[in-house]
Amino acid sequence: MPQPIQELDPDFYISYNYPIDEKTKKVSSQSEKALYTFVEYLYDKGFAASIRPGDPTHLLIFIKLSPYKFIEEAEKDLIKNYEFGVTAKDDEFSARIRIIYQYLTSTKKLGGCGIVPGQAPYEEVVNIVPVTSAFDESRIVEDLKDTFTRPELSANQIKRTYGVQIALYFEFYKYYIYWLFGLSVLGIFQYFKKSKTYSLGYTFLNLLWGTFFLAFWHRKQQYLVNLWGVQNSHLVEEHSLELAEINERFEPQSSYLHKNNTEGFRFVKQLFFIPIALAFAAVLISYQLGCFFIEIFLTDLYDGPGKSYLTLLPTVLISVFVPILTIIYNLVTSVVIKLEGHDTQVSENQSVLIKAYVLNFLTSYAPLLITSFLYLPFAHLVGPHLGDIQTTISTYVGENRFYAKYLTKLKSQKEFKINQGRLNAQFFYFVVTNQVLQAFLKYILPLLITKVVKLYQTKVQKKPQLQTSADDPYEARWLQNVRLSLDLPEYVVDDDFRSVVLQYGYLILFGPVWPLAPLVSLIFAVVFFKLDHFKLFNGNYFKPPIPKRVDSIHPWNWALFLLTWLGSIVSPVVTAFYRHGTAPPKTMGQFALDNASVNISSSAKLVLLMLFTEHAFLFLSYILYNLSELFKSGVEWENDFVDNDIKLRHDHYSKHVKPTIKVVNVPAWNEFTVDSTLDFTPPSAVEPVDDVAAEKLPSKKQGYSTSTQASETTVHSRSEQARVIAEKERLLRERQAELARLEKRKPEDSSATNSSAEYNRLNKDKDASDSIIEAKSDPNSKKHYSTIDNNTHVSDGNNKEKTGTDKTTHTNELLQGSSQLPPAPNDKSATVDTNKYTTHSENAAKAGERAPGGAGLASAAAAPPSKKEKEKEREQQFDTNPAPAKENKSGIKNSNAPATEQRKALAAGDDKFNGNSDTQVEKDKSSSGKGSNSNSKSSKSQNGDKSSGADNDESSSKTSETDSQKEPKRKRSGLKKLLNKI
Q1: Which of 450, 472, 474 is nearest to 53 (CA)?
Q2: What is the CA 354 to chain-centroid distance, rounded?
Q3: Does residue 140 lie within any of the structural domains?
Q4: Same structural domain for residues 205 and 296?
Q5: Of 50, 584, 814, 969, which residue is most buried, by most CB within 10 angstroms?
Q6: CB–CB of 172/553 below 8 Å?
Q7: In angstroms, rounded to a whole number, what is the distance separating the alpha carbons of residues 158 and 711?
Q8: CB distance 806 to 792 below 8 Å
């Protein structure tokens, strides 16, 4: 005999829609196929299932997850917990239910089953309900007796069965009751004082109570969530989908824009809801004001028949309108929620709660605000206009109407009196009468509705009932309790939170109106706390809730703070208005504060009072919240997420991250010691002398300039001159090192011996002004050399000797500590005798010797580059010329083009190139010389060499260009020689 289903300990039951055709009394083949597919899918996902009938149109599918699959899902959950610092262990019943439900309902992208009630592809699934002890046999009377006689209700038991969120609600409610006890004692003392209402001292104590309650609850909440190990659990719930998407499309370096990054867009959509909320608030406030005026007319002005019944009309109107407006508001809210596109159910629920609280706030506190700030201060202004009101009613109603004489029967101005106790009566209604109504609606009406609906379905509708004769007798009673839960609503703990927060708002906003309100609220709170516990464990009110894991009571902590902040403004003002009793009505005046029936007429005093209390609350809250961090418990320090995260990151990155900073080692610093550092010349004072005028030197012009005046550089001291000399020396050494490096990079291959012989032969036969270049290689990769004319011929030997002598003299004088810089080589306007700018002073020479490395500078600078270095440099200029090519008049590009193209043009024997026009040849060669010079400059600039040593090459190139223009015949012969050799 198989075991009863309740003894198999199922995890959930799934309410599955399985309709029967009324005509054929059978189930359609499509429904049978869908059921088979669904059950097969459950088994594929690791579930075992057993089916029982639920009602004539629904099935109960009891499911149990296999142990191996649960262990796998629990391990995933623990890993996610570890990622965000959650230390709770999944060893409780509520944790098992939560993990399995998450596995059932999460999307396939997250590794779940994707079974969401009412959504495709399993629309037939109506509900997924956990199987708990609520389905066990119980009686309401016995459960009530057990609940009220139990000395203390343990939140740990609730946490183990129904999860952290519900347990946190009961802990908050219990903590609120403890604090209400202290406020009740203060209220009792205040009530028996002479000024028992609207006491300014009690108002401040009430605000202090609210401020300290919020701060201490924050500390209590942090202790509880750390004790239960659920700290930072909201991060796991909020980022589960985001983590899956990140793992799916991993980026080595995070970018700002993501395809699915919707946080910013969601925030913009939430901002668009503000006008919608304001519109609904305007409609509700307008309707409340209309009902308020009707109530004032019927209670204070109307003097006709049926007055006692007609005064209930505004209440009826409010009671009918508010639910209708709430339904419309919720429909609009649901559309907005869908447009916002929340990633998780937690985020969506919080958005719904925040939007719903706007309407709850207005419906709960707007009547008291209207009475406090509109009716009591300014109702006396209506008295002088009673005749106008009567005339207006007669005009619009008409005298022939049978009820016209009743509506126009108003009190006289002498009979009109303001209801001074209206605010007290309204506050008593919300604190006492409304609480009694809430107790009836929450704890008695649901039981009555269940009985009435059952009788209506069986006696009036004659609805077919399920045949239960085939049930196993050991399962029959337990299955009956499960079937009764099909029609019950789902338990929402936020509804209970809302009731507690609304009661807190009445006390913090209007507590000074009646000091006994905390005592009455304490009595109701104790009773409701017991009944909430009874309602949760008894299976006659709700379906068993799904356990949820949270780390705060958010967003209700925001609502509590908002109410306390508003209370710091509203409560002192109401007390200041009526703390000496309601002021006598003023029959004349306008709608202004100085004409209001209040005990404060100075607007400045009123504003100062509001600013003082509001800022004092904010300042005290800030202080208390920060001081509360000093009282962290040991378990909070152990679970500190920031410290754990820093430790984990340090351990991980210390093994993988290595510095990539380039460190430049200067060996000279290793020679310094403590003794050598302290061996310095102490500063000494001398007699003041007159400042010597600064010496002005013309400096090199950088780039091209059209100015005819040389720029000047001011040298203020000999140390500055030494610094310039040292800089010249450093640049020269860099230039020599670069030339040596280029020599080492000269390619060598296996045919070096043959190439060397060819190179030596050409070196012997070539002219003094020619250079050896590398020609094309043969198919065996053997190198061949050729010569090329460098076009540096001169016609006058004396001129050449003079030019070389001047250049050598100029270089030596520049590098031997001269105090003035020569003009730039390409500055034609500054072509003057270099001796004019050379200063052979003894002081300048000594300054050059004192400069770092100054010794031997003149000898190093005077040595010109070797012939081999010049040839190597010119070959590089010719082969790697980056300057853009320009066409000459003959159509042939000048030497700025690559060398291979020039060789092809020459080899082809272009007529334009080999023409008899001497002028054309001269222009081509002149252009080639300039291009080489430009290329040389570009190459040196790329290597970081911007020293004055480059000026020698520019001067040589310029001299070659000038000499080539003077002797076209010699250039023509050199070009023909180049053609023959190529």
Answers
A1: 472
A2: 21
A3: yes
A4: yes
A5: 814
A6: yes
A7: 90
A8: no
Nearest to 512 by CA among 210, 216, 217: 210
Distances (CA, A) of 708 to 268, 618, 632, 824: 64, 73, 80, 13
Residue 81 and residue 198 in one domain: no
Spatial neighbors of 717 by CB under 8 A, at least 6 apart, are: none
pLDDT of residue 137: 77
Cα separations (Å) of 230 from 168, 220, 234, 344?
11, 14, 9, 18
On the CB side of 655, CA atoms within 13 Å amount to 5
Would you state the structure tokens that stand for residue 443, as one six-digit string? 């704890």
Q: Which two tokens mark 503?
A: 């009661």
Rounded Cα distance, 950 and 945, in Å? 8
Residue matched to tokens 């005749």: 387
Answer yes or no: do 103 and 220 share one domain.
no
**Sorting pLDDT into bands at 50, 70 and 90, what band is 262?**
low
Burial of 814 (0-12, 13-18, 19+ CB in 10 A): buried
Helix H or strand E encompassing 712: strand 712-715
User: Are the CB atoms for 844 and 721 separated by under 8 Å?
Assistant: yes
pLDDT of 492-546, one tens digit each?
999 999 999 999 999 999 999 999 999 999 999 999 999 998 998 888 899 999 9
Give the pLDDT confidence score for residue 717 in this predicted structure.
54
Q: In the Cβ-directed half-sphere of 912, how many Cα atoms lie within 13 Å?
A: 11
Domain-terminating residue out of 621, 648, 675: 648
Q: Would you say 593 and 577 are in contact if contact means Cβ atoms under 8 Å apart?
A: no
At 525, is the secondary structure helix, strand, or coil? Answer: helix
Q: Which are the contacts of 873, defined by CB distance < 8 A and separation ≥ 6?
A: 739, 742, 865, 936, 953
Distance CA 495, CA 670 (A): 76
Contact 90/164 with Cβ under 8 angstroms? no
Shared domain check, 211 and 91: no
Q: Is residue 120 part of a domain?
A: no
Higher-pLDDT residue of 846 and 432 is: 432
Strands 58-65 and 47-55: antiparallel
Last residue of a domain, one of 602, 623, 648: 648
Highest mean pLDDT: which of 618-632, 820-834, 929-943? Answer: 618-632
Most confident of 130-144, 165-179, 629-643: 165-179
Q: Mean pLDDT for the chain?
A: 74
Looking at the 3D structure of the chain, how many domains does it have?
3
Q: Do 741 and 790 belong together in one domain?
A: yes
* 951 within some domain: yes
Same domain for 180 and 234? yes
Residue 653 exposure: Cα atoms within 13 Å on the Cβ side: 8
Work out the angle between the directed axes of helices 155-162 and 517-537 (0-180°, nearest 10): 40
Residue 591 lies in a domain: yes
Give the H/E segment covering residue 238.
helix 233-248
Rounded to whole angstroms, the Cα distance separating 180 from 804 reads: 106
Query: In angstroms, rounded to a whole number, what is the distance separating the alpha carbons of residues 855 and 974?
Result: 44
Q: What is the pLDDT of residues 291-308, one digit of tens each?
A: 888 888 887 777 777 777
**Residue type for 269, please?**
K
What is the rounded distance in angstroms from the CA atom of residue 937 to the CA atom of residue 880? 12
Residue 341: CA atoms inside 13 Å, Cβ hemisphere, count? Answer: 12
Phi, psi (rounded to 5 degrees) for 353 = -65, -45
The Cβ of residue 221 has, within 10 Å, a number of other Cβ atoms equal to 19
More confident residue, 595 or 450: 450
Run of H or E including 177: helix 164-191
Q: Quick one: DSSP state of residue 715?
A: E
Strand pairing report for 125-130 and 58-65: unpaired
pLDDT at residue 387 tops 50? yes
- Count the Cβ atoms, other than its own, within 10 Å of residue 972: 15
- Residue 7 predicted with pLDDT over 60: yes
On whether both 726 and 854 belong to a single domain, the answer is: yes
Q: 556 and 426, same structural domain?
A: yes
CA atoms of 886 and 905, how far apart (whole Å): 15
Residue span of the structural domain in which 563 resides? 132-249+269-648
